[in-house]
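Following up on my earlier thread - several people asked me to post the actual chain instead of describing it. Fair enough. Here it is, all 160 residues.
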Amino acid sequence: MKKLILLSGSPCVGKTTVGKYLFEHYENSAYLDGDWCWCVNPFSVKDKRLRNGDKSMSFILSNYLTSGFDYVFFASVVLTDNKIRENILKDITATDYEVIGFTLTCSEETLIKRHSKRGDQGNTNFHWLHLPPYPTDIVINTDNKPVQRIAQELNRYIKR
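Reply from S.P.:
Thanks for posting it. Predicted structure:
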């Protein structure tokens, strides 16, 4: 059965890095970074026009799942919002696939270091980090772990 693997969590927690790594190491896979569909200026999560970005995500995921890919990796901070996640998933038109959700997390100290390393200016926002994970998500802590180790932890759930 095809698998849609969701990678959720705060900015700088490792979603994109892990998602790209998994995509590169799984044959017959596709990858979507939700940031691509929310790339607007000015940016505000409350901007109602972003719901169109959500529809774009559903459309792309539907295309990947109906195109015969065995694994579809989807990394996005928007998956931390239960309502947005459920609306994106609800609008996927593909059938016969399994959803496996992960919430990546780390300590505040690690998040500050990662934001700094990325060159982000100002204070690190911990809002996303402290949101509760989606009820069915598997929580993976990324503190002090190379991407290969994080991927190994996720693989245990993806490959079963």
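The beta strands are 2-9, 29-33, 71-75, 97-105, 138-141. That should answer part of your original question.
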